[in-house]
Specification:
Elements: H1 9-28, E1 33-34, E2 42-43, E3 49-50, E4 54-55, H2 78-94, H3 100-119, H4 133-140, H5 151-160, H6 167-170, H7 175-194, H8 203-215, H9 232-246, H10 251-256, E5 263-268, E6 271-280, E7 285-290, H11 298-327, H12 337-342, E8 351-353, E9 358-359, E10 366-369, E11 379-385, H13 388-395, E12 398-401, E13 408-411, H14 414-417, H15 433-445, H16 450-456, H17 471-479, H18 491-499, E14 525-527, E15 530-532, E16 553-556, H19 560-582, H20 589-606, E17 617-619, H21 637-641, H22 652-658, H23 675-680, H24 683-694
Antiparallel strand pairs: 1-2, 3-4, 5-6, 6-7, 8-9, 10-11, 12-13, 14-15, 15-16, 16-17
Helix pairs in contact: 1-2, 3-4, 8-9, 9-11, 9-15, 19-20
Amino acid sequence: MNVIAYVNREQLEGRQAIDRLISHYRRMMSEPMTCPFDASKSWVWNESRWHGAGRFIKHELKDIIKSLNPDEVHLISKNSRELIQSLILHMYIMKGGISRTAVNSILSDYLALENVLRDRSLNNEADFTSISLIDLNNTLQKNMSSLFENLKPIVECFGSLGIVKSQSVLQWINPRVKAHNKISSDGYKEKLTDENSHKLPDYEAVMAAADYFRNQPWLSYGENASELDNDFKNVIVSSALTILMMVPARSQDLFEQLSVNCLVTAKVDDTVVYGITWYAKKTDMDHWKLVPSTVNGEFEHAIIEAIERIKHVTEPARQVFKSWDEQCPEYNPLAYQHALRSGWVPADFPIYSEQNKVRYSEALMVMLKHQTHQSRDTVENCAIKINKSHFRDWLRSKEVKSASSGADVYLRSFFERIGYEHLNLNPDDYNTHAYRHMVNTAARLGGMGEFQLNWWSHRQEMGSVYDHRTAEQKRIMVSTGGNFEAMELTPQQRLDRINHQIPMTRKNLGLKFELVAQGTGGFTFKTPLGMCTHNYCESPCIRTCNCIECPENLHCKGDKRTLKRLIEELNDISDKIALAASECDSFGLKRLQIRHEIIDGLVKILGDDSPLEDGALVMLAYEQAPKSGLIYQAQELAKQIENGNKLTTIKHTEAIRHLGLSRILPKLEAIESKKNILAEIKFNEFLSDYSEDEE
């Protein structure tokens, strides 16, 4: 009798994906391909070796067989060989090219994984569709000195191609890479701690820049622009430093992303709030860089004036770019190769910032060619970008060789040019990133929360290295309540915090339970399917991984991310119910139906057709929630979600099912306008019906 192993549907689909992948690249490689690392060599399909990548030899034989062209018996199987060749080509194309070292590493990690899969197979053939966590961890044991840093990218590539579908495999984290990164990070943080004194700017230098900026004519107040400093460099440097003193920014983004109309305003609670449309290139984050509001408007006026001065001195360069746009509306880089090589046209013209959608004719930081050169005349009909290198050169002092005489020429720093030669500054005091450290520390001392500060700074991770508070300052903040915000938020404020993923306390949400010592009520936790308001001081969570049916899972109307996930979850459960019905498999079907009804009700209540205002808090559960202080504001929901529905004329259980809220008991007693409905709906009967169904 022949024994045939059972193969599930996902593995069958994975094998079909492998066949399609190999077939595609086999056709592409019908002719030898020039090696990307050596134009004199070629890659031939299904060969035993690719130049620059390595040999397709079995992992256990790579240190034994030294031949560059090993025999077929020493190679991995044809299918495995074609798969890795397809994988290398696919990753090379999708990433726009990868280094020779990376290709070597990918092949090495692949061969180790192939060895593990082959060892556990019945037919001595590696099946990559059946990769498990055990296989990945066993692969790490093949070489204790290797990080296997490309093992995770290989698995992710398999996932994107549909070869592997197991979520546990796709979410696997390589412990060696993680540990290596942690060691590197810890060493870096220790180094920063030792050099903490150099991370903040020199106080006298900050005051000198501020004093110079204040004493220049204020163009935003209508003062005479002709009295502005004639040195273009000083105007740009002082204005840029003023911006960096008030918002936690990277100078790279300031000089490479902003438009001339970057300053925007909004009205919040009868107060005009200023912000800068900002794109952080390092973290790929784009939103307003808000300017702190002050009682007398000092910060707001300074930001307006700084941008106004930059606009004034850079306007001639913008006019040049505008004329180029008018003369060449359909600019073709191929027609201007000589101009590009000579530096007469910026390499990325006409787009100044693709992320911020800014053209050179609208850019803030531009200047005429040679405008700041010591010995050359300014070119009036040619303009260039002001970048971070220009700013650094204008800020610091340095010695350069004269182009004409060859003698050393000393170029004064910004502070020397504005009359502060007495300042004893070292190179670290000229570091613009120090201003980012200064603003972060000032914000913490002012009580700003960590998550708010990270969002304001366009930072994706906790910024502990930017925290320069002393131990005494931290102790005082903890003793006085720290950064906790005990105020109850308005619906719009709640929604804004949820959209920006800023944690909130129970008191922020208007919930009753409070921690007496802090008056905050403890923090809530954002989950993919809502917001957890459970009090972990009292007990651990007893509904792990079942947030939907939890009476302490809170939802906010207007939270688009959560609504999208709820709809995806609803569609997934609908597919599972349909599959179970088609295969006559009723195991677990009742629980799926209960979950389906709950999520369906949530989608209706949180959807665009719901009458709830954005920011309203909703709590749904298939059992009536205890008195937990949860807010449910579904006024007129029964009338507006389902047109023509009359609760008073339909039996209570049918009415609830008609709304799509079967087994969901909202706190209707909190709705004063529904007392007549409460009289009609007999909850005791419904609960008894529910109990019988469960039994």
